[in-house]
């Protein structure tokens, strides 16, 4: 999940790596 203070887009990029 979220590691630190990352933007929503970075978080989505991590979770939904296309």
Given helix and strand content, the structural type is: mainly alpha
- By DSSP (H or I, 4+ residues per run), the number of helices equals 1
For the sheet with most strands, the description reads: none
The radius of gyration computed from the alpha-carbon positions, rounded to a whole number of angstroms, is 7 Å
Query: What is the first-to-last residue Cα distance?
Result: 16 Å
Strand elements, count:
0
Shape descriptor reads: elongated
- Could you tell me the mean pLDDT? 75
pLDDT under 50 segments (min length 5)?
none
Strand content: under 5%
* H and E string: H
> How much helical structure, as a percent, in the residues?
40-55%
Organism: Brassica napus
Protein name: BnaC01g35890D protein
Describe the structure.
The chain is mainly α and 18 residues long. The chain is 44% helix and 0% strand. The longest helix has 8 residues.
Structural descriptors:
1 helix; mainly alpha; 18 residues
Topology overview:
Elements lengths: L7 H8 L3
Describe the structure in brief.
Helix content is 44%, strand content 0%. It has one helix at 8-15. The relative contact order is 0.25.
């Amino acid at each position: 999940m979220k590691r630190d203070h990352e933007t929503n887009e970075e978080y989505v990029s991590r979770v939904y790596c296309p």
